[in-house]
Design goal:
This protein has 365 residues and is mainly β. It is 8% helix and 36% strand. It is built from 4 helices and 26 strands. Strands 1, 3, 4, 8, 10 and 13 form a 6-stranded antiparallel β-sheet that branches. Strands 2, 5, 6, 7, 9 and 11 form a 6-stranded antiparallel β-sheet that branches. Strands 14, 16, 18, 20, 22 and 24 form a 6-stranded antiparallel β-sheet that branches. It is globular, with a radius of gyration of 20 Å.
Length: 365
């Protein structure tokens, strides 16, 4: 396909489909540097989380690890562990590997999904040359969710070689594009705390009267993904700005927060929110990690940048989060080529203009 290293863009994902490397996928599900997966009606309620052993297909887990076989006619119960077969299958050539992530919308409703593949003893990772089926482990953590066949709650990014940038390359990109902006659109001056194997962003607990949302653990309403008019207060409790600009994160609770800074992804790059860093505190700041080329990108430089919404969960003990505290690390990735279509322009988006702690697309805004 190419001798260049990097994430595979829109037009080459389309070529992979035409070549038979990706089967069962629809072209309208291609994003600038990723592909949305679609769920089928083949569902199993599991006794617990499983991973395949060497030589073991995921279908074998469905056979011996399931409490029962079901479908999407019934809502997925809170805390239930479900195995759902995907419509797509892969027949990758030796040089292409992939990683997957929750989509932003499913992350924002605390619907956890992890990709599973035949004989692959780890989640969310597809080795180079993989041939086989694809499944999702799906767990609603905060409230029941009614899915429908064809729903897209997980996505995959394909790679040829190593797409990562070094700290020096991140600094060069930052100085070239002004990757991080303040509320006025001005580039924030770089320092060692901002640029360290990626771009550090901080939490905004002062800039809005409503600084976030917390999942209402007593919620019994079912979130139906066929509806886009859910009342937020049936599922979440608003978090008003506090006088001391602090928020105590409680273990097991789920929060929607937003970054103080705005960030942009130039059309020739991709980005991913890095995995949990224990040096930042006892919390996880995201369950949906991919940002496509064009995020926050606009023709006028002074208009560039969009805040990032965070899906936050504390663990271990209560943790006091304060305004301006580092909360996530954004890692840029090189692309094999600029995508034919970029985020927020040629391809529609529900979140390209978000400013505050915006909930998922299924809620009245």
């Amino acid at each position: 396909m190419t001798n260049r290293s990097g994430a595979i863009p829109y037009q080459l994902i389309r070529e992979m489909m035409a070549a038979g490397y990706i089967q069962g996928a629809a072209e309208e599900n291609i994003q600038p540097s990723s592909l949305d997966f679609t769920v089928t009606d083949e569902v199993y309620r599991l006794r617990g989380s499983y991973l395949p052993r060497s030589g073991e297909p995921v279908s074998a887990i469905a056979e011996h690890g399931a409490l029962y076989h079901t479908n999407l006619d019934l809502p997925l119960e809170v805390g239930g562990i479900y195995l759902i077969k995907l419509r797509e299958t892969l027949a990758l050539p030796p040089g292409i590997h992939a990683v997957s992530s929750n989509k932003s919308s499913s992350g924002r409703i605390d619907l956890r999904s992890r990709l599973m593949a035949d004989s692959v003893p780890r989640f969310d990772s597809i080795p180079a040359g993989y041939h086989g089926s694809l499944w999702l482990e799906v767990v609603p953590k905060s409230f029941p969710v009614r899915l429908h066949p064809g729903d897209r709650i997980n996505q995959i990014r394909f790679f040829h070689g190593d797409a990562r940038f070094s700290s020096l390359e991140h600094r060069i990109l930052y100085d070239r594009y002004g990757l991080l902006r303040d509320a006025r659109g001005q580039t924030i001056k770089a320092n060692e705390e901002i640029i360290r194997d990626g771009i550090t962003m901080t939490v905004n607990l002062a800039g809005h009267e409503l600084v976030g949302w917390s999942a209402a653990r007593s919620a019994t309403n079912v979130l139906d993904t066929a509806r886009f008019d859910h009342d937020p207060r049936d599922f979440f409790e608003p978090i008003p700005r506090s006088p001391n600009r602090e928020l105590t994160l409680r273990p097991g609770m789920f929060y929607i927060l937003v970054t103080k800074e705005k960030i942009l992804v130039p059309p020739n790059l991709a980005m991913e929110m890095a995995n949990y860093d224990p040096s930042k505190g006892e919390f996880r700041s995201h369950f949906a990690g991919f940002f496509d080329p064009g995020w926050g990108w606009r023709e006028k430089d002074e208009e560039r940048g969009t805040a990032a919404v965070l899906e936050v969960e504390a663990f271990g003990q209560e943790f006091v989060l304060r305004d301006g505290q580092p909360i996530c690390l954004m890692v840029y990735e090189r692309l094999i080529a600029p995508p034919d279509k970029i985020y927020g322009t040629e391809l529609g988006s529900h979140y390209s203009e978000q400013t505050g702690p915006r909930l998922a697309k299924w809620f009245k805004q």
